[in-house]
């Protein structure tokens, strides 16, 4: 039942998948776990009053999970021009200028993909808030685990942003990416922490 292909590729010396792909995969796992809670809730008379909203959350979680899985390959594609730029010759002024231009262009995609992963993880955390509060109590611990996983994915993806903005010459663009990253971290981290604390309290 366990598909180890991605994990084995991640463990290899190949440059991709790497941290970005792993972040997207972890976010997808968090989404799947939150969906499990929702699927255990719908159709139960006890939760009839949240049935419609829970089904809506399940649709959103499915869409977000699919997007996160697609971002695994997107992250790998974004790394290719970055790796190529770092490998360009730098022996002459012209070569150094060409290498720098290629690098600066590649850094844009290398920042925007992990930011998209972070945005998706925030969406997962937002769904976790609802499923933890209104989902089946039999799966309460799973709702909390989903929030924790999504927060970890959010934080992991942010590291790809940090490392890439550090090489950007365009300070204004770098600051914009940094602000987006920090806003996503702050919003998602706070919500995930609240879900975890609430779940622990209710389980104790």
Automatic annotation (TrEMBL):
Residue span, Cyclodeaminase/cyclohydrolase domain: 5-182
Any coiled-coil regions, as ranges: none
Gene Ontology MF term list: catalytic activity
A Pfam family assignment: FTCD_C
Protein name per its UniProtKB record: Sugar ABC transporter substrate-binding protein
